[in-house]
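Q: What residues go here?
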């Protein structure tokens, strides 16, 4: 049974708790830290978007289509549907000669409340560009068009674009991906159940380039740099990924998944992190990620204030009164 990683307090009592597993791996596959069942296969979902964006960059498609660094960052995002995100996704598609009608990710209202309210006030309705995965899907469309393939059906496992993307994920995780571990993601692309420690290894490789061919290592470095330069594109206003990378810059590349999964790379330390909270709580995965990063920093005594705040978020009621906190347990050190 996995241990409790994060507790939620109210007053002086623990009101609820989140169990899970967490692992830190170096680029050689060595385990630096582990707690819980780190061999369990989990669906990483959006946590691996940066890996899925590797073919877009390493093949030269991003350069041939003149994608900006902000657009490359958006290809790795789970964005909030704010105007900056919608405009960048539309720009990516335009450079491929396409429009939002080509996207096969589905439609939902912007995740950012202010953006959703502004859209509604204007009399508008959401389209696929507002989907949190539209940047990733726009990258897929760009890759397909650059290859000369019809992008129709690009979400299907058998499409040439998806086969290339899946091969990149299999290579970085050193995991066989096939019918035995495939499912369908929220945005309709395939998602694969992958052991948690294999996900951590993939992020160690993304952070160091170790074990990757030169073009792939260069693509990983460029993707990390794009995210560090444009953290707003990775998530959005007030979101954990954006706040963490704004605070830490190129020292950290982090990405949320779904259902309590989080992955991160610490390039300077050559380490990858993967976390799964058993109850699917994203808030707990965020706190666990921040706590592990603090644990791994060379000098624990000099934790940036913004990072420290992410390790113990305060809970406030509707009157703004501080009523409790989230905190990592001793299981995370």
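A:
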């Amino acid at each position: 049974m996995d241990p409790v990683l994060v507790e939620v307090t109210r007053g002086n009592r623990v009101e609820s708790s989140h169990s899970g597993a967490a692992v830190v791996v170096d680029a050689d596959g060595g385990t630096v830290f582990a707690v819980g069942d780190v061999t369990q296969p989990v669906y990483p979902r959006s946590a691996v978007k940066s890996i899925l964006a590797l073919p877009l960059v390493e093949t030269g498609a991003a350069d041939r289509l003149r994608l900006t660094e902000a657009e490359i960052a958006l290809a790795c995002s789970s964005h909030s549907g704010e105007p900056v995100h919608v405009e960048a996704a539309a720009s990516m598609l335009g450079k491929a000669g396409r429009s939002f009608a080509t996207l096969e990710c589905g439609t939902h209202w912007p995740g950012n409340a202010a953006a959703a309210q502004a859209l509604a006030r204007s009399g508008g309705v959401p389209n696929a560009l507002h989907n949190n995965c539209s940047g990733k899907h726009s990258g897929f469309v760009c890759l397909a068009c650059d290859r000369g393939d019809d992008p129709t059906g690009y979400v299907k496992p058998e499409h040439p674009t998806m086969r290339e993307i899946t091969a990149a994920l299999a290579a970085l995780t050193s995991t066989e991906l096939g019918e035995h571990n495939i499912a369908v993601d929220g945005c309709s692309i395939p998602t694969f159940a992958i052991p948690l420690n294999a996900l951590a290894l993939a992020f160690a490789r993304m952070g160091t380039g170790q074990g990757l061919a030169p073009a792939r290592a260069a693509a990983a470095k460029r993707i990390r740099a794009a995210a560090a330069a444009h953290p707003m594109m990775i998530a959005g206003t007030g979101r954990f990924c954006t706040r963490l990378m704004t605070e830490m810059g190129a020292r950290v590349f982090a990405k949320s998944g779904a259902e309590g999964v989080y992955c991160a790379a610490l390039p300077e330390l050559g380490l990858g992190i993967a976390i799964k909270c058993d109850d699917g709580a994203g808030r707990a995965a965020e706190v666990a990620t921040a706590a592990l990063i603090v644990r791994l920093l060379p000098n624990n005594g000099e934790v940036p204030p913004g990072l420290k705040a992410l390790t113990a978020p305060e809970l406030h009621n509707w009157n703004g009164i501080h009523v409790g906190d989230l905190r990592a347990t001793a299981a995370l050190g």
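A: Context that may help when evaluating the design: The two ends are 18 Å apart (CA to CA). The domain at 4-332 is CATH 3.40.710 (Beta-lactamase).
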